[in-house]
Amino acid sequence: MKIDLTSSNSTFGVPSNFTTIFQPAITLDPHKDYKIGVRSCRLWNENPNISPTLANNTFKYSSDGGVTWSGDLTINQGIYSVDDLSSAVQTLITSDGGVGTNVRLDPDYNTLKVYITLQNNYQLDMTTNSFNSLIGWNAMIVTASGLGQNLADVSNGITSYNLECNLVDSNSSYVNGKASSALLNFSPNVNPGSLINVTPFSVEYLHMNSHHIQQINIQIVSNLGIQLVDLQSPITVSLEIIEDK
């Protein structure tokens, strides 16, 4: 049995967590066992690494050695590389009346850290949110040029996504040592703004927890178990139910 689901046509929910109600309900033979798998999943690579939700989209700067400070400058929500972040920071400082080129962020590919260059008495305040963690710096006021103390984490620790489904028997799926409803794991292996088209070469079928399907809930979470709340575009999922022989 093939079941196609689209978040935009769901009964309720958001793209990363939507539910479809079946009327009438789908009833499977109670004397047989069934498994479910994902034939395909399509979503846009739009999960931001900078956003208000992540509390990492603002910073402050001083142009006079820390005597006075700007207000919070806000980076637009989006997916940024270190070079992109450097450009955004410089643009915001310039728009605020400062000299953006006095602050620069550069990736150090040898150490996987970020070098901050400050000139002409400029300083950065990275104590007010988690922007510092994204670029691998401790929460501090940066007063001089230097290399970050930690590895840059521009992905916020996200290396893959899990597609969870309420029909999965939790004894069939484990994530990080815990029982889960995860039906599929995949990585966003396309450029930001591009379509992630997941079509498993070999579908993995997991045992189902019910023979009566009144509703199907699909949720997309990161490998950290966090729902991708900032997704805006529709998600399409094609499921297949087979008899366990």
Largest sheet, in brief, is: 5 strands, antiparallel
SSE arrangement, N to C: EEEEEEHEEEHEEEEEEEEEE
Distance between the termini: 15 Å
**At the third CATH level, what is the topology name of the largest domain?**
Jelly Rolls
What value does the Rg take, in angstroms? 23 Å
Strand content: 35-45%
Number of strands: 19
Tell me roughly what share of residues is in helical segments: under 10%
Overall mean confidence score, pLDDT: 94
Shape: elongated
**What is the CATH architecture annotation of the largest domain?**
Sandwich
Structural class: mainly beta
Tally of individual domains = 2
Uncertain segments are: none
What does this structure look like?
This protein is mainly β. The chain folds into two domains: 2-47 and 158-243, Jelly Rolls; 58-147, no CATH class. The chain is 7% helix and 40% strand. It contains two helices and 19 strands. It has helices at residues 82-95, 131-134, and strands at residues 2-6, 12-14, 17-27, 34-44, 58-62, 73-74, 103-108, 113-118, 123-126, 140-142, 146-147, 161-165, 174-175, 178-179, 182-186, 195-198, 206-207, 212-222, 236-243. The strands form five sheets. Strands 1, 4, 16, 17 and 19 form a five-stranded antiparallel β-sheet that branches. The protein has a five-stranded antiparallel β-sheet with strand order 2-3-18-12-15, with no helix packed on it. It is elongated. The mean pLDDT is 94.
